Amino acid sequence: MKKIILFLLSLIIISGTSIAQDVKAKAKKTDKAAPQQNVAGESSTRLKKDGTPDKRFKENKKEEAAPAGPTKKDGTPDKRYKANKDASNAPKQK
Fold it and tell me: Is residue 49, in this structure, part of any structural domain at all?
């Protein structure tokens, strides 16, 4: 009789611990990277659901450096000029 009671008690304890929620996993779900707050309480960056900055808003768009030389009509650097060529794209010399 003692063996049966101990077996049932251990079975209940083991099943209870395996069903219990994982506190760390629950904390990971609730703790998301919150955007930084300004003094007025407004967020400085607007984020998408996955936490990356939303590029539709002006504050999340970064100013790109202007090319060193002439540009094409669409604003990209014209690679025909030496000033716009990268060292990595230059032909290798033997």
Answer: yes
Task: Let me know: does 54 contact 48? Beta carbons within 8 Å.
Answer: yes
**What percent of the chain clears pLDDT 90, i.e. is strictly above it?**
7
- d(C-alpha 77, C-alpha 83), whole Å: 9
Q: Is residue 41 part of a domain?
A: yes
Range of 43's domain?
Answer: 32-61
Domain total of the chain:
1
**pLDDT-above-70 percentage for the chain:** 62
Contacts of residue 61, defined as CB under 8 A and 6 or more positions apart, other chains included, come to: 55
- Residue 10: what residue type? S
In a domain, 18, yes or no: no
Q: In whole angstroms, give the CA distance from residue 33 to residue 49.
A: 10
